[in-house]
């Protein structure tokens, strides 16, 4: 008789506009806890994203390939729109992973976890505290700093830095594939 445990599938959702070093840190740490991790890139058209959805998905894929996740966890990057719990159900996730940067995140995340629990009580929300050197990084601040000509190189990985500066007209593409 086999006593094999069911696959632990988690979902780490976000807009990833742009993907930051903080996002990569949470993905790396969440991968240690799960057998399969889906990074769900949300459409979020209401937020007026800097990057279109397909480009955000490809940036997360490219940056994860550079970082490398040595845990053996299967990682997928998938776009989604609509209710988070519906997407979690669709992919078979029983865990939603959320990163907490500071106390100010807690109220929003606590309310969201409660709402998701009411929508599907079989899906657990797990919070990972941001690493100390990533606690202040927020994609919207990164976009604003970049728009205003500030240096975002310590907040985002190299490819994302180049693409962000190109998108804002601050860098001419050096590679036709970009």
How is the secondary structure organized here?
Elements lengths: L8 E6 L6 H11 L4 E7 L10 H15 L6 E7 L3 H8 L3 E6 L2 H17 L4 E6 L9 H9 L10 H10 L11
Parallel strand pairs: 1-2, 1-4, 2-3, 4-5
Describe what this molecule looks like in 3D.
The structure is a single chain. The chain has helices at 21-31, 53-67, 84-91, 103-119, 139-147, 158-167, and strands at 9-14, 36-42, 74-80, 95-100, 124-129. The chain has 178 residues and is α/β, with parallel strands linked by helices. The chain has a single domain, classed as Rossmann fold. It has a five-stranded parallel sheet with strand order 3-2-1-4-5, sandwiched between helices. The protein is globular, with a radius of gyration of 17 Å.
Key attributes of the depicted protein:
178 residues; alpha/beta; Rossmann fold; 6 helices; globular
In the residues, how many domains can be counted? 1
Class by helix and strand content?
A: alpha/beta
Within the CATH hierarchy, at the fold level, what is the topology? Rossmann fold
Query: What is the assigned CATH homologous superfamily?
Result: HUPs
Stretches where pLDDT falls below 50 for ≥5 residues?
Answer: none
Sheet with most strands: strand arrangement: 3-2-1-4-5
Number of helices: 6
Outline type: globular
Largest sheet: 5 strands, parallel
Helix content class: 25-40%
Counted beta strands:
5
Order of helices and strands: EHEHEHEHEHH
Strand fraction equals 15-25%
């Amino acid at each position: 008789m086999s006593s094999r445990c069911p696959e632990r599938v988690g979902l780490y959702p976000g807009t990833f506009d742009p993907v930051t070093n903080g996002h990569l840190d949470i993905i790396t740490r969440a991968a240690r806890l799960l057998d399969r991790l889906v990074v769900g890139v949300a459409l979020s058209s209401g937020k007026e994203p800097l990057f279109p959805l397909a480009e955000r998905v490809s940036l997360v894929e490219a940056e994860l390939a550079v970082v490398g996740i040595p845990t053996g966890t299967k990682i997928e990057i998938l776009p989604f729109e609509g209710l988070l719990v519906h997407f979690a159900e669709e992919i078979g996730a029983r865990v939603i992973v959320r990163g907490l940067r500071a106390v100010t995140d807690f109220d929003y995340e606590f309310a969201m976890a409660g709402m998701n629990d009411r929508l599907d009580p079989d899906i657990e929300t797990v919070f990972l505290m941001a690493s100390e050197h990533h606690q202040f990084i927020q994609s919207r601040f990164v976009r604003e700093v970049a728009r205003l000509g500030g240096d975002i190189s310590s907040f985002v990985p190299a490819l994302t830095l180049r693409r962000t500066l190109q998108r804002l007209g601050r860098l001419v593409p050096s590679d036709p594939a970009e």
